[in-house]
Amino acid sequence: MKNLIQNLPKAELHLHIEGTLEPQLMFRLAKKNSIKIPYETVDEVKKAYEFDSLQPFLDIYYAGASVLVEKRDFYDLTWAYLVKCKEENIVHAEIFFDPQTHTSRGIAFGDVVEGIVEALNDAEKKLGISSFLIMSFLRHLSEEEAIKTLKESLPYKYFIKGVGLDSSELGNPPSKFQKVFQMAKNAGYECVAHAGEEGDASYIKEALDLLHVSRIDHGVRCDEDIELMKRLRDEQIPLTMCPLSNLKLKVVDDLKNYNLKKLLDFGILVTINSDDPAYFGGYLNENYEAVAKSLNLNEDDIKTLAINSFKASFLSDEAKNRYIEDIN
Ligand code: HPA
Ligand code: ZN
User: Fold this and answer.
1) Which residue in 3, 165, 167, 289 has a CA-CA distance of 20 to 30 Å to 275?
2) Which CATH number fits domain 2-313: 3.30.450.40, 3.20.20.140, 3.40.50.720, 3.30.70.100?
3) Residue 30: per-residue pLDDT
4) What's the CA-to-centroid distance between 113 and ligand 1, angstroms?
5) Measured in angstroms, how far is the CA atom of residue 93 from the centroid of ligand 2?
6) Rounded to an integer, what distance in angstroms lies between the CA atom of residue 185 and that of residue 183?
7) 152 and 124 Cβ atoms separated by less than 8 Å
C-alpha cells in the first residue's frame, strides 16, 4: 500500500504555503530577520504543536509566519515544499497563501506573490511540477479588508488562479463575504472556501449558495445533512479533506471514526490533502497512509482518491485526462 501511495501521481489541492514552514527554516529566518520567536529548539516547537481546536493552532501558525519578511523568504518556503512534492510524486499543486497575514505586518503584496511565483516557475522547469496559486481571505477580518486585498491582487491576477476563505470559521460564516466573492468572480477568479471544518453543515450550504464556490475545503460536517450530501454527490462538488489536520485539531477524535470512506462510498468527490503539514505531522503521502490504515482502504480506493485529486483540480480537461489515464 505504501508503495502504491508513493508511486501514484497525485495532485494536492488544499495546502497553505505558510503551513509548510518547518522549524529549521523558522529558526533560520527568525535569526536572519531578527524576529523573536518563543522557541529555542525543535523539541520546544513540537511540544507547542498540541492543539485542542482550530483557534490555538491559528494563533501559533500566524506567529510562525512572522519570520517571513523578504521576497527570498517566500521563495525558500515555497521551494522547500515543492522539493517535498517531487519526493512524494505530487505532480500538480494548488497552493493557498494568506496575503493579509503578511501585508498587515507591512510586507508588500508583490514581494509575497513574486517570491512564491518564482519558486513555482522554477519547479515547473526543474521538477516538472505544475501549480496554481489561490489567495485566501482571512475570515476573522472584515469583508472591507478582504475587498482591499482583492483590489491589491488585481495587478498580479495573471499569477493567481482563485480566491479562498480560511482562518477562524465559527462566527465567521460565508454570508459575511458575499460581496467580495461576487467581485472576485467578476474579476475572473475561481472560488473555493473552507467550510464544515468546525462550522456546521449550514456553512457548507452558504458557501455553495451565497459564495458560489466550485469546491469545499474540508467539508467534514456535510454528513449532518443528507440532502446536502446528495447535492455534493449529484453535482460532483469536490471536498478537499485533510485527515491529519482534522485529527490534530480534534475535528475527529480518532481516524477510525473519520467519515472519508463513508463519503467516498456515497459517491462524493473526496480528495486527500495535507493542509498545514509542518504543523500537523505529515505531508500528503502520510495523510493517505494514515487513512488507508485507519479505514482499511483498498487499492481501488487509493486509486480513486488519486484520480479524484485531478478531477477536482483546476487543470484543463486535457491535462486531467492525461493524469487519469496514467493512473489507470
Ligand atoms: N482552517 C482554517 N484556516 C486555516 C487552516 C484550516 O485548517 N489552515 C490554515 N488556515
Ligand atoms: Zn486549510
Assistant:
1) 3
2) 3.20.20.140
3) 96
4) 19
5) 14
6) 5
7) no
